[in-house]
Specification:
Rossmann fold, globular, binds nicotinamide-adenine-dinucleotide, Enoyl-[acyl-carrier-protein] reductase [NADH], fatty acid biosynthesis
């Protein structure tokens, strides 16, 4: 399997460093011949993302903070000017105030952080898709990243779980809206990965190790595995798939109890 993405151009949003899920995805896409543009959030991240983007031969590295919609507009204006069209977008962006990702959801969640979390981690996906649509004249594929805390309670995931539930609903509504134009919209629901964002969740280590012990595959996933599934969803291999929440979590989502050894402890 080679050059699955040859001739395709896409935008990768959400690389913070070489541990980011977006980086795992970008590597797989570049290996299959895709031409990539990257966004970064602020100068500090820009310094880390620049060498990574260069490593994959990218010539477009654009500053973007989704809280400032003018910067999102500017990214898509640049893409229109430089490329004229777009084949895919990866939205791997999430944020919530760390102090609210521990303790009881009922106690710690404030209106201010709820709004901020929803805008950055969920609604920005709609705003990105709205702009990408205009450049996807020959159809396209749009992908976001979610987590199982959207539909089931994971300790400390709190308001991020609420935002991921909204994000997954957006995947379905956008998939229905854009389907007639051949634009597909999907999400990968990844198991826990040690990233900057992942480390912000309270007791991340304990949750990571619990999933490793209890997922059917008895391990967690890495960013290369998420990248390979993303390659499927962003390439023509998945041409008949849209509106899907695709789990890449070692099967953790299918179990309802700890494994027997752990259960009997
Ligand atoms: P990460 O910290 O490497 O990436 C998060 C990215 O979000 C960073 O690049 C950061 O710059 C960006 N971001 C945050 N606020 C932003 C803003 N206002 N404007 C623009 N960009 C902003 O962590 P990651 O784990 O690779 O996260 C990527 C996505 O994967 C997130 O949506 C996260 O919720 C999701 N996810 C992560 C895990 C996990 O365990 N790490 C599991 C499932 C889903």
């Amino acid at each position: 399997m080679e050059n699955l993405m040859k001739g395709k151009r896409g935008l990768i949003m959400g690389v913070a460093n070489n541990h980011s899920i977006a980086w795992g995805i970008a590597k797989q896409l570049a290996e299959q011949g895709a031409e990539l543009a990257f966004t970064y959030q602020g100068d500090a991240f820009g310094k880390r993302v620049a060498p990574l983007a260069a490593q994959l031969g990218s010539k477009l590295l654009l500053s973007c903070d989704v809280e400032d919609i003018a910067t999102v507009d500017s990214v898509f204006e640049t893409l229109e000017k430089e490329w004229g069209s777009l084949d895919f977008v990866v939205h791997a962006i999430g944020f919530s105030d760390k102090s609210q990702l521990k303790g009881r959801y009922a106690d710690v969640t404030t209106r201010e952080n709820y709004s901020r979390t929803m805008v950055i981690s969920a609604f920005s996906f709609t705003e990105v898709a709205q702009r990408a649509e205009k450049l996807m004249k020959n159809g396209g594929s749009i992908l976001t990243l979610t987590y199982g805390g959207s539909t089931r309670v994971i300790p400390n995931y709190n308001v991020m779980g609420v935002a991921k539930a909204a994000l997954e609903a957006m995947v379905r509504y956008l998939a229905a809206d854009y389907g007639p134009q051949g634009i597909r919209v999907n999400a990968i629901s990844a198991g826990p990965v040690r990233t900057l964002a992942g480390a912000g969740i309270g007791d991340a280590r304990a949750i990571f190790s619990y999933q490793r012990r209890n997922a059917p595959l008895r391990r967690t996933v890495d960013i290369d595995e998420i990248g390979k599934s993303a390659l499927y969803l962003l390439s023509d291999l998945s041409s008949g798939v849209t509106g899907e929440i695709h789990f890449v979590d070692s099967g953790y989502n299918i179990v309802s109890m700890p494994n027997l050894d752990e259960l009997k402890k």
